[in-house]
Amino acid sequence: MTSAEEFLRSYHDARPDAASELAGRGRVTGDGRTVYEVFADRVTAAKAVLDLGCGDGALLAELGSRGVPKLAGVDLSPGQLASAGRRPELAEADLRPGRAQELPFEDGEFDTVVSFMALMLMTDVEQVVAEAARVLAPGGTLAIGIGGGGREAMEIFLKVARPLFAVVPEERRVPAAGDPRTRTREGLDELLTSAGFEPVEWDRMVVDFGGTPDEVWQTCHDSYYQMAGLDDTHRKGLRTAFTVATRNLVTPEGRLPASACIEVAVTRLR
């Protein structure tokens, strides 16, 4: 297990519901539903789904509520898997600890593989893609959700935070995770087509996270693993700098606009 994987496992063991709670604060612009509800629309024909990096099972539970008969998930974090197992929709799901690079499932076992905001954090991504192709039946679907950056206050937060993230002492620095190729259409096509997948279909969800300045600060704070490396002094300084930098964006009603983009890539195994 890499240092990045060890960090992610420890982080999510301590905060097993953090990712789904954060996602649940937002609503997809022009739709009004959660990201899990909108993402699940990409795999409406699924009968047997494997979620790579399933976390606390929020996406699998949404698919279960739609009647998908076979659900499975793999994740590094036992704490998240325990949370997933407590969801009523996942009472019969096959949830296993492990790495997506070494899937404990049979060849061709699934017609759909999904990975929401997880593939972009994985190392040895060629092996992840090869394993996804192995467990998919011919013609099976792979659907991926990828972070596409922030807008409004969320974009400002990152501009203010980056200099602080860059000077965190080595012993507290959060290990870098992921492969940049997983964050672009061109990079994914390079990875996926060599493993037997078709070129991806690509579209974008814009998720509204606007709210009071305090609410938006908390959402920004919770969106970046690098915050775990800051000490209290730097965290307080960042909050002050963020408040000043976004002051002019606050509406007369007291709302601070903030949104994030999620890129959605869907492909099929040839």
From TrEMBL:
Domain Methyltransferase type, first and last residues per copy: 50-144
For this protein, the record's InterPro entries field holds: Methyltransf_11, Methyltransf_Superfamily, SAM-dependent_MTases_sf
Q: Is Protease set as a keyword in this record?
A: no
Which UniProt keywords are listed?
Methyltransferase, Transferase
User: Which GO molecular function annotation, any one, does this entry have?
Assistant: S-adenosylmethionine-dependent methyltransferase activity
Annotated signal peptide: none
- For the keyword Thylakoid, the answer is no
Q: What SUPFAM superfamilies does UniProt report for this protein, alphabetically?
A: S-adenosyl-L-methionine-dependent methyltransferases
Q: Give a GO biological-process term.
A: methylation
Name of the protein this chain belongs to: Class I SAM-dependent methyltransferase
Q: Which organism is it from?
A: Amycolatopsis carbonis
State the taxonomy lineage.
Bacteria, Bacillati, Actinomycetota, Actinomycetes, Pseudonocardiales
